[in-house]
Every structure is written in structure tokens, then in C-alpha cells.
Amino acid sequence: MTVHGFSPSGNCHKVRLLLEQLGREYRWVEVRSDDGSTRTPGFIAKNPNGKVPMIELDDGRVLVESNAILHWLAEGTGYLPDDPWQRAQALSWMFFEQYSHEPYIAVARFICGWTPLDSPRRAELPVLRERGRMALAVMERHLQSHDWFTGARYGIADVALFAYTDVAGHGGIGLDQFPCVQAWLERVRSTPGFVPMPAPDTVAMRRIDESG
Amino acid sequence: MTVHGFSPSGNCHKVRLLLEQLGREYRWVEVRSDDGSTRTPGFIAKNPNGKVPMIELDDGRVLVESNAILHWLAEGTGYLPDDPWQRAQALSWMFFEQYSHEPYIAVARFICGWTPLDSPRRAELPVLRERGRMALAVMERHLQSHDWFTGARYGIADVALFAYTDVAGHGGIGLDQFPCVQAWLERVRSTPGFVPMPAPDTVAMRRIDESG
Prior knowledge:
homodimer; alpha+beta; Glutaredoxin; Glutathione S-transferase Yfyf (Class Pi), Chain A, domain 2; about 5% strand; transferase activity (chains A, B); Glutathione-S-Trfase_C_sf (chains A, B); Glutathione_S-Trfase_N (chains A, B); Glutathione S-transferase family protein (chains A, B)
């Protein structure tokens, strides 16, 4: 299996993290999502939506959308419960992640690290940060009475939510007000086979540091 | 089962459409999402994310996120394939819908119909419409060689994508350039048990008409 992904992207890292924890073999092909590489004719022929991550099987079939990839990889493993209601709740959190969390927390981080310091997009940051904190508050409330987002055990909803929550600070969204989220992040980091997301490159890190 | 939903919301209508097609009994409780009704303490206690649709079982358990609800309802029925790869592709389209389609096509419609004609949010419409057309182009490309989004048969990915595509015009996004999308909409309307989404009320329809 080949994973096409941009290493500092949380959506891409989700796939890497689960594959590592499953002990699956895979080939990683680096495809930057900030320089047009996901919009070339060759890439668009495989994913008309022009995004990574994308997995490609040896017979050429492709699957896109990070959380759909996680769900497919986890089927039949301990990372997705058997119980239909728990499975539904896990999927619910994964849709929450893509609709109410990632568009704020990941986009704030992208703007801080991967756009110029004078980009007009930086005007979006106050609203993105406010909505990102609203998403974290929803997670905090859940974690006050649950250890995980995937039913009784760590699983793919945790993988999905971990990716960008762990680096929310890159977008200027601190976790001080969210102690249960911080404790959950630490539990995720302690799961067997955990691998951290590669750090942004020095250009991106300098921009993040200068974004306040 | 009780469905808490706002009738002219595509996300809510998805649940109604599938329940009707499955022949399931349910109670519909109207909850407007444009007047704060999903942000009351009573509602937030059930769904901290403050959104409809929400289904509530007779024992009080709740499930949120429209596409997670569809997936749970469809499990074991003909509206979700058995084949793991087809299931994964269906789920991929459902994440596409929530990330790359709904935030543009549904939000453009919401701004046109449910915000005042002088709302500053109307400045967002050109970008929303452009990105909505990009999502429709991705669908058009798929439909040039496939009849459905849920594997070989009509199913929940079609339900998910139908909801807002069918009313894209309310947000000023025409379908003239997308003949395969138009033909697919007609195929969906011809499926057994199909029910159309209730029309917006007269205030919303007048605003839509005046939004050009």
C-alpha cells in the first residue's frame, strides 16, 4: 500500500499513526499540499478533489478522505469497536472532527505556518481561534466522563481528533483551559506503537513562532 | 425514535429521507437552527455541539452528526453495501460532503435564505459559490462513469449528497454545467419511498428570490 501524504499535515499523520499502530507495511510518498502538488493533472486523475492523504493499493485502486481511510484500515481490529452503537458514536466524533474542529484548528495552524506573515488570510485567525476553542470545549465536556472517543477503548476517533488537537498551539489556540483534553492527549501518546507527527520545517516553525 | 430537526435543513432532511425509505417509525420534533433553539441549556445537555439533526432513542441515548446517523440506520440494509471497499468509498463521499460540499453549498443557501438582505455575511457568497461549483465538478466527474455514490446501488452516500445538491440553486449555484449531476438527482427522486425536502418558509423563499 502506498500513502500519498504531506508529513506535517494532521490529516495525513492520522493514516501514518494508525498504520504504525497496526504494524502494517506501507510506502510513504511525500506530496506537499501547500505548493500545488495535489493539483497536478497526474494527481487530479487519481483524486479529483486534489487533496491528501490518499492511499493507493497495489492494484491501483485509491481511497481518499483521512477518516474514511482510518475506518477502512481499522475494520476488524481493536481500533474500531464491534458494538454498533459504539461504532456510531465513534463515527459521529469523526464527522465532528471534520466539520467542527479541523476547519478551525487545522486552518488556523495552516495560516500561521504556511502563509506569509503579511497574508490577508491572517485576518481570519480571531474567528478561527474562537471556533477552535468551542470545539475543544465540546471535547472537554465529553472527556469529563469518558476516557476515549472510540467507545471504551482507544481507537480511530481518538486518532482522528488527536492529530490537530496535539498541535493546536501552532495556530495560537492554547489548551490551558482544557485539562481533560491535555490528559487525554497524554493517554494517546502512551498507546502502543504511538509515533509523533513530524515537526513543520524551519520556515514554517519560524512563521508559527512569529505568529504570536 | 425521536428525530430533532429543522425541516428545511438538508442535514436534517437526510435523516427523514432515509427513515421514510426504510419504512421506520419515528417522531419528528421541529427544532429551528436559526433562532438559538439548538443552543438552549436543555438542548446543549443532549448535544454539547448545539446542532441538529439529533436522534434520541426511547432509552434517552442520543446520536448526532447527520452522516453518522445515516450510517447507523443503514447498517444491515440495502442502503449500505456489504463489500468493505464499497463501504469505504461510500464513507469517503460522505466525508467529502461534510468537508468540501456542505460548507459551501449549504452555507451559501443559508446566507441567502436565513440572513437579512443586508447581512455582512453576504460578502462571503462569491467564494462560497466558487467552491460549491468545485465540489459539483468533482461529483460530475464521478457520475460520468458511475450511477451512484454508494457502490453499485443507491444508498446513504447518495442520500447525503442529494440533500443540498438538490437545492444548490437556493444559494445561487446553478446546475447547468453539471448534466450528470442533474441526471443523478432525477434518479434519486425516482427511488422507492423518496420524499422531497419541505420548502423553506415564505420569508426565507422571498429572501432567496431576492438574493439573485
